[in-house]
């Protein structure tokens, strides 16, 4: 059985900052074909769908659609704030290669 993705406390905290003072939106993490390595991550604010896996923490939600779930099995969804920029990042144990930007990968 595949392990579900995990979301770090730092990612939930950043999502709470984004949602502060607004109607809360879930962070959708999906996988789509494309990018320089074959697959790419699609990370955006969205509403949960009935078939989504919903990961909750700190009153926030991260959702993954059923098609993307096998590609994200065991992945860790985090948030990083570095000199090159602040962004949600995914450490994916299923990726055999990835590009320098970190948004494209192959399996």
TrEMBL record:
Q: Which GO terms describe its biological process?
A: iron-sulfur cluster assembly
What region holds the Core domain? 6-102
Organism, by scientific name, is: Paracoccus aestuarii
| Gene Ontology molecular functions | 2 iron, 2 sulfur cluster binding; 4 iron, 4 sulfur cluster binding; iron ion binding
What is the official name of this protein in its record?
Iron-sulfur cluster assembly accessory protein
Could you tell me the superkingdom of the organism this chain comes from?
Bacteria
The record ties this protein, via InterPro entries, to: ATAP, ATAP_core_dom, FeS_cluster_insertion_CS, HesB-like_dom_sf
């Amino acid at each position: 059985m595949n392990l579900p993705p995990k979301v770090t406390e730092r990612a939930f905290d950043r999502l709470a900052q984004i949602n502060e003072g607004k109607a809360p939106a879930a962070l959708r993490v999906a996988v789509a074909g494309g990018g320089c390595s074959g697959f790419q991550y699609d990370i955006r604010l969205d509403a949960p769908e009935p078939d989504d896996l919903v990961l909750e923490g700190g009153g926030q939600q991260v959702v993954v659609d059923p098609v993307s779930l096998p590609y994200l099995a065991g992945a860790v969804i985090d948030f990083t704030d570095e000199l090159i920029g602040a962004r949600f990042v995914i450490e994916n144990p299923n990726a055999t290669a990835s590009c320098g930007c970190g948004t494209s990968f192959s399996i």
